[in-house]
Design a protein that fits this description.
Strand 5 and strand 6 form a beta hairpin. A five-stranded antiparallel sheet has the order 3-4-5-6-7, with no helix packed on it. The N and C termini lie far apart (30 Å). The protein contains no helices and seven strands. Helices cover 0% and strands 63% of the residues. It has 71 residues and is mainly beta.
Length: 71
């Protein structure tokens, strides 16, 4: 379930683990876990490190991507 912070609404969601992937960040390759969170027609792609920290997120429907830059 996703919790919408602005509206307080809860939305059913599905999480799919796509496994470990190499991802090129800041000129180096890191192996990160890739998960897709689906809620309605919206997909959110997230990559997390071995400590569970969010490293990258992409929301294709919004043409949005963000990458952690602090190591």
């Amino acid at each position: 379930i996703l919790f919408q912070t602005r509206s307080g609404q809860r939305t059913p969601a599905q999480v799919v683990d796509l496994g470990l992937e190499p991802l090129q960040l800041d000129g180096r390759t890191r192996t990160l876990r890739h998960r897709v969170i689906r809620s309605g027609a919206v997909e959110r792609h997230v990559w997390v490190d071995a400590q569970g920290r969010l490293v990258r997120i992409e929301i294709p429907a919004l043409h949005l991507s963000a990458t952690r830059t602090d190591g």
